[in-house]
Design brief:
It contains 4 helices and 6 strands. It is an alpha+beta fold. It binds methionine sulfoxide.
Length: 159
């Protein structure tokens, strides 16, 4: 496992995720702290953050993140994030250079994991995206953990 999965990590995730008041402003407040927490706990990553589904559901828009400046809009037919949103499934890429349509934000990124955020009503509301400068950084266990994290986040911050 490349991430600390101790109770303290999950307790901290719950602490920064719980208590949403239903407003868009506070959703962004929680997502900001969650991106900081993930950045502290995930090893060997160079970007972690959120893309949020536009209201008209045509594209994803950059949300809170940690890392270098990133592209702001991703249409659903493009990139790792677009595919994760369209298929409602995680997209784990060992080598981004072999992934057709990969959108390079940080040229250092070599592997990537995009996990859809799915609301309690079953809609894709965004994508949790993590990049690493190491090829093959993300294991199946990492994917399972981040899917668990994504579920906690989307169920707490969307209706
Ligand atoms: N590589 C992503 C774009 C977002 S950045 O990695 C921050 C993609 O192909 O969707």
């Amino acid at each position: 496992m490349q991430v600390q999965t101790s109770n303290s990590f999950l307790e901290q995730l719950s602490a920064v995720t719980e208590g949403w008041d239903g407003s868009v402003e506070r959703r962004y407040c929680h997502l900001s702290n969650i991106s900081a927490l993930l950045n502290q706990h995930l090893e060997r990553i160079n970007w972690v953050g959120f893309y949020v589904m536009k209201e008209d559901r045509t594209a994803l828009v950059l949300g809170p993140f940690q890392g270098k400046v990133a592209c702001t809009d991703i249409s659903l037919d493009r990139g790792v994030c677009g595919l994760a949103a369209c298929t409602k499934g995680s997209v784990r890429v060992d080598d981004v250079h072999t992934f057709p349509g990969h959108i390079a934000c940080d040229s250092a990124s070599k592997s990537e994991l995009g996990v859809p955020l799915i609301s309690r009503s079953g809609d894709v509301v965004g994508v949790l995206d993590v990049d690493s400068a190491q090829i093959g950084r993300f294991s199946e266990d990492d994917q399972l953990l981040l899917e668990r994290v994504a579920k906690i986040i989307s169920e707490a911050l969307w209706t």
